[in-house]
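Example with several molecule types.
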Amino acid sequence: MQAWLLDYLPLLIVLSSLLPGLLIFTLKEQQVALRTFLNLLGVTLKLVLVFLMWQGVKEGESYYYRIAFLPGADLILQADALSLLFVVLSSVLWLATTIYAIGYLEHSPLRSRFFGYFSLCVSATVGLALAGNLVTFLLFYELLTLATFPLVVHRGTPQSLAAGRRYLAYTLSGGLLLMLGVSLLHLLAGSPDFTPGGYLAPLLASGSILLQVAFALLIAGLGVKAALFPLHGWLPQAMVAPAPVSALLHAVAVVKAGAFGIVRVVYDVFGVEVVRALDLAWPLLFLAAFTILFGSWRALAQQDLKKRLAYSTISQVSYITLGVALLGPLAAVGALVHLVHQGVMKITLFFCAGNYAETLGIHKIRELNGVGRQMPMTSLAFTIGALGMIGIPPAAGFISKWYLGLGAAEVAQPWVILVFVLSGLLNACYFLPVVYRIWFGVQYSAWPSPQRLSSRFETHWMLLAPSMFTLGLILLMGLFASTELSPLSWSELIVEREFSFDD
Amino acid sequence: MIDLSHLLWPGAGLGFTSAVSQGWLLFTLLLWLLALLYSLSSQQQDPRAGRYWLFMLLCFAGNVLLIAAQDALSFYLGFSMMSLAGTGLVLHSGTKQARRAGRLYLQLAVIGELLLFSALVLRASAAGGLYDWQSWQNVPLDHLTISLFVLGLGLKAGFFPLHLWLPQAHPVAPAAASAVLSGAMIKAGIFGMWLFLPATDPLLQQWGQGVLWLGFVSAIFGALAALCQQKSKQILAYSSVSQMGYLLMLLSLSWLLPPAQQSLALIALVGYAAHHAFAKGALFLLAGSASRYRFGTGDQLLLGFFIVSLAALPFTSGAMAKTALKQATAAFALPAANLLYLGALCTALALCHLLMRLKAEQLALLSQTSASNMPWLQRGPVLLLAVAAVLLSWSGVMPASASVWLPLGITSYTSLSLQALTAAAIWAAIWPLLMALPTYYLLQRFAGSWLLQLGRRQRWVFFTSLKLKRLYQPL
Amino acid sequence: MLSFYLYLGTAVLLVGIGGLGLWRGPELLRRILALNVIGAGIFMLMVTLAYRPVMQGEPADSVLHALVLTGLVVAVSATAFALALLGRLLTRAD
Amino acid sequence: MFPALLLVTLPLSAALLMLLWPRFARSLHVTVALLSVPLAGYFLQQILLHGEQQWLLGGWSPLLAIRWQADSLSALLLLLSALLHLLVSGYALAVQARDRLPAAFWPLSSLLLASLQALWLARDLFNWYVCLELLGMVAVALVTLSGDKALKPALNYLLFSLFASLCYLLGVALLYAGYGALDLPLLAGQLEANRLNAMALLLITLGLMLKAACWPLHIWLPAAHAAAPAAVSALLSALVVKGPLFILYLVWTELAPQAFWLPASYLFALAALGALLFGGIAALRTPYGKSLVAYSTVAQLGYATLALAFVLRFNLPEFVAALWLFVLAHALAKAASFLAMGELQQTLGSKQVSALKGASQTMPLAMFAFAVAGGSLIGLPPSGGFLAKWALLLGLWQSQQYFWLLVLAVATLLAAAYVFRVVVLAFDRAEPTAPDFAPQRLPQYLALLPALAVWAMALFSMPLLTLLKQEL
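Resulting structure tokens for the full complex:
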């Protein structure tokens, strides 16, 4: 690999989805083959590039790309271990979701627009992951909002428009708060690159109020996307979007962007020391704990499958925030690994929900009775995903919960474990009845609108294959957690290499 | 031992390194294989046999895994796999009873899992992020962790106040499933407690006394509650509650005894567990067959053998187990060691009741249809279980050269069976039985309907479970 | 000196009258006229200012005269334009 | 000297020639528009090379001569005007076949360009008056091009404009009475803080604010801008209102005595507050598409006014930068959104916002242009609007104006609300409004062009700030 090419690698990774996306916009509706080719080309390219970068970062190389942007705050794309975690997650899940979306949207109108924005959305996510300073992060954070909005309203029904309005109201306000916070920090400390251990420590002496304000603004801005308690209102409504979109929104793109931002802010902007010194973690901790329970509690009452999954997301994403707010190395590992695990599990669940909806027209939970016999593979994937959400091994969710629990015990906050237990209980309360219906329920009426999508499989292979793929990932990540390839090992590497814990 | 730590998670490993786990594995494996063999016949006409086998095999794998585990996470993996797949077995028949029992089972199993999870987390954290047993042995426990372990694992083991699900869930499952549920799976709770609560820990001395009494109460309660039941499988299930009480007593004795004698209690624990696994497993299998097939004389003899064995009549594995229990109790110099006789009496009463009910059920079956004979595929496993039980109780009599083939450290248990052959032990085993017969007659005569009514007093459990369900699943 | 103040006063008066007309009148024509009156007032003011050096015996300020001339041209054309527009508007309204 | 003179005289003489030979009007116009751009570019380069330049026209002495002066800001504005003029000409040509603009459009818009370029170059109070007057009348004339429905707003505009000019003229006359000079550099630093000067400055400010449509003196703007043809609205909103603002800035920073700065800053801040809030709310409520864009202009001018207020109050470089960045970003974004909105309305056949239902499918390009321009109006990164807002935010944090931060936040949300009010509607797939005829692609691309340019602006923040001679 040429040296000059290496410098451009971060940019190329962003462009590998951006350019196909822009090209797709210009395509006509009927150019299915070309569009699919472009999509897959982008995915493959991105995966190859990400693989190269992964190799490099593992060896300790650094990638750094800089364009002039604001005075004192360049646009920086760089790759450290943390950003790579998110990049890998989003590119791999993009692959699954793209295939899924191609199958899901077969014969539906406006596909060029859909796939165009879809690629933009991934580009923004990857850019956000690779962002090297707060200003760059802010830029991609806003772009993400813009790229996902058309996906949320893609159906164009009154409900989806209402959801879109709400989504915008929340996310744009969040972006605004973030912008206020970023500008305040820029004034106080400039916008240097993300630094392990943060770069605000020298400012501690000169007064803490403004730092606290900045932290509050940043977290509130990020909390909107991460669906922290009072800011979560957009998420359950946004599930009216088509299944691949919900899958991507809930698993990778939007909610994770918020959570990832919180990780960045706490570890690479403020740093553990400053957060401790300013007593900033406590409110975040309580908020996250409350959100975990609140989301689960609300999920119980939902009768719509996707809505239940949406509330579950609110709860699950806050695990990440909680792990970050605990400010311990093990909790950080738990938070990071949950970022990946939750993504894969939730995307599986949404794929399955989409499969049920597309194949049999099932949207409500009570219609799921006995669907396990009709669609065993999908149901298996759903079951494993649900068990993972509860935190039952060997699904991946267990590993992350375990590390979060260890982290809580490590910093002597055993009450947090109680939160996990209660949340696990609530998770079981809203997932296991669904699983029960799937496998043991007796079908009492005909399927709402069955479609024969495949002659060989239970549903279209493009719908089935991604869910099987992510199902495999869940089990592999849960079982082979200690291997070098696993998110767990990578998270440990991140914490070891980049997070500054004294001990 | 297989080291998997570079593959799965730090400290992951599988192996059977201690005598207890070797013995435990042996009887568990045996019971499982025979139960699976039995299922070949019993599930022949099952339209949903695929589902049955799936859950059976999952439970099997989980059960073996948790015994083989060398670290907390592998144990937890096996434990939860077994627990959750067990739901499938309880729910299998799909009847109303099965559904509500399944719900109750699942609710409590999940709670148990989560309690165990938090206990493991606390423990792993105390051990500095290491998960393997070796590192955990010397890390001091604290009260919170112990109570979490006792509750979490106790919910699986099903001893007295945590037994609620057991008498409901075991009877509704298919016979072979009930056999492994009662014979092997609930023992995982006790096994886990042995694993996670190392006897060397000083804090357990404080807990031992209480747990001992808890075990005793459970033993008496289970037996008495069994008397109030009408269905043979439910009687067997309550009997399991009672037997788990004995196992719990043995476990707590292992904590209380001085280190030199701890191995005695542990040997007794494994022996008792094996005995119970064989006897209870066989009885469940027989009870399953009894509801569908005509019993020949041989079958009735087999039934009698296991009942007698469970009642700890001399020369049975039960006698061996009970003797071991008594020895351990005596070693601790428990003032109320004589209370054990009360336990034995109650057990005997329950078994009388079981015999009567089985007989009644068989008669009812025969009066309705012309049932065929029990197929050999079902009889065979039961017979093999009987052989295993006999081997268990008599292996000590065999010459040392003959017992060498016994795998691993099993030989250490064989000495127990010899001690059961002393005259004092024989007498001690027989007299409660002799007393039980007239007592049972009198009880049935004068308090039969009262007992029946008492037996119906378990609806509150379902009611609460349903309430709970309504809470998290509003209509 | 008196005449200076007289001119000045007249200029201010004109601006005032124009302002009042603008304020009071909703009719467009009246407003156009009022604007013209204000314009006249301002030009008068400027001419008066140009007159100041004369009082000291110097020639009048020719710059201001030039400005007034320019202003007048602009004002006339603007008025014409406004009236034309008004005319079109009124014919349309009929 | 030569390029600067050409920049003004070329369009001026072309306009006169067009009147003489209406047949060649269009080609003359295009030639001038095309020539102006490289000329302005060359001029900017010259300024960058040689620094600020000034000329006294006709070689008269400073007291009599008309002074032209060009620093990099003027040069930048010259280039911007030339560029937007070219763009709008292109648009006008592109839609020529469909909705024919009256022949008067060509000379008038050349005249508009000439007067604007003269305004950017002039540094003389009376010269500015002439430019303003010319600008106003040409603008009014342009508004009337869309036919009889525009007569009323146009006349209204004219009256306001005349009144404003008179106010300005009166102020200028008062200043001249005191100091006998009209030349800005000559007057700079001379003014004392007395009543007469206060009166004069107040009159000048009032006139300029009226022309620049600062709240609450904006009432003429929405109707006039909405009634004009799309091409004209784009020019009016993007450029014409910026002229008076430019004068206002120079008058206050160079002419006015420091003692007046604080009260003036309160005045401007109040106007900004009203503009930001009420402009936004009005844009949110109006049922008509172009009025929405016009009200958005009112609101966006609030940012510039706010920046001006804080320039006077704190004199931080951030605010100066914010002021001009807002002007630049708004010019580009507003041109794009007016062209896009005009195209949408023309094709979909209705002025109502509600008629834009489903426009993202029927006319994706125009809608995209509108949304992208809207992004800059909201201030989403990396647009020019963001860059300006960023500068403003830094200044506000630095001067600890927390109330104004809140105002800014609310204003941003209002902007987001009115932009996405349209965009969300465009995604409605239930009953999309069918276009009256097949949408033309070229005009839509032309509308997209400035929108994309404004989004690229932030990437060139450093050169821009160098041009504005400000550092953040």
